[in-house]
Amino acid sequence: MNGDFLTQMAQASRGRVNAAREMASDATLMVRALATPPPVMLQLSDQGFDLIAEVKLRSPAVGALKPATEDLAARVESYATAGAAAVSILTEPSHFDGTLAHLELGVRALGGRIPAMRKDFLVDPYQVMEARIAGAGGVLVILRMLNAREIDALLDCAGRLDLFVLLEAFDAADIEIAHRLVAQRRGEELLVGVNCRDLQTLQVVPGRLEALGNLLPDSVPRVAESGVANADDARRMVAAGYDLALVGSALMTSEDPSRLLRELLAAGRGA
Questions:
Q1: How far apart are alpha carbons 120 and 187 in whole angstroms?
Q2: Which of 101, 134, 161, 226 is the most buried (most CB within 10 A)?
Q3: Which residue blocks in the chain are alpha helix, DSSP H?
């Protein structure tokens, strides 16, 4: 992929916001967001390890994971039944084949059992309002992609709308930003995760999760993102200090995703 991946994704995301804003103003959207039912709260298990199961039809690293005809509602429901703490749903269209309609469909399928998280390259509070209107209980915020003002605007909006936020870091510098945010925003529902993909090749970097795990704030849940595909991986993540794993491609390509999800949970909790 040419150029910096996050820069490309941020530009495309701003274009989508501008197009949406032509249809409804920020003020109109906030009124709608505040009028929606309260979001489902994230509840973590007292057994010590949880999974955020991800729905994505395409990965830039490997291409199509499932066809557009995939029964997303059935998949989301199976994730909840197998014990996922939340379901992450890609809404990015150009590289992940996602839409806001997928998020809405997933929320309906979950039926209030567990929250859905909007996973996208969010750059504007407008998109946080969209997530709440679609029924999400949380959003992803990629620290590397945004300046301090943009991050604060997203977090302020998420806080106003009672959404949890997964702060995504790629390296120690990102984690320093996360530490400051966690210290400044006590009382807000934050999680901090490490994404172990290389931003140039988009391939998983072996050892990154272990190398950075002990740098994460220990006052909020810590999430291992990408690179968790089997029971041994889950045990490694617990040993490295993570409280959750976000698992996408492994579940999307598994012949029996419910069984894999249960195996990951059992291994992590057994560790």
A1: 24
A2: 226
A3: 5-21, 26-35, 72-82, 93-96, 100-110, 125-134, 148-160, 172-184, 208-213, 231-239, 249-253, 257-270
| CA pair distance 22, 10, nearest whole angstrom | 19
- Measured between alpha carbons, how far is residue 97 from residues 56, 140, 187, 205, 244 in Å? 7, 17, 35, 24, 25
Q: Which two tokens stand for residue 197?
A: 């993909």
- What phi and psi, each to the nearest 5 degrees, are found at residue 89? -125, 120
**How far is the C-alpha of 261 from the C-alpha of 47, rounded, in Å?**
15
Per-residue pLDDT tens, the chain, 271 aa: give them: 334 889 999 999 999 999 999 999 999 999 999 999 999 999 999 998 999 999 999 988 888 899 888 899 999 999 999 999 999 999 999 999 999 999 999 999 999 999 999 999 999 999 999 999 999 999 999 999 999 999 999 999 999 999 999 999 999 999 999 999 999 998 889 999 999 888 777 788 889 999 999 999 999 999 999 889 999 999 999 999 999 999 999 999 999 999 999 999 999 999 8
User: Which SS3 state, helix, strand or coil, does residue 254 take?
Assistant: coil
Cβ of 175: how many Cβ atoms within 10 Å? 19
Q: Is 74 exposed, middle or buried (0-12, 13-18, 19+ CB in 10 A)?
A: exposed
pTM: 0.95
User: 55 - beta bridge partners?
Assistant: 89
- Nearest by Cα to 167 from 122, 208, 132, 203: 122
CA 92 to centroid of chain Cα atoms: 12
The two three-digit tokens of residue 198, written as one number: 């290389």
In this structure, what DSSP letter does residue 125 have?
A: H
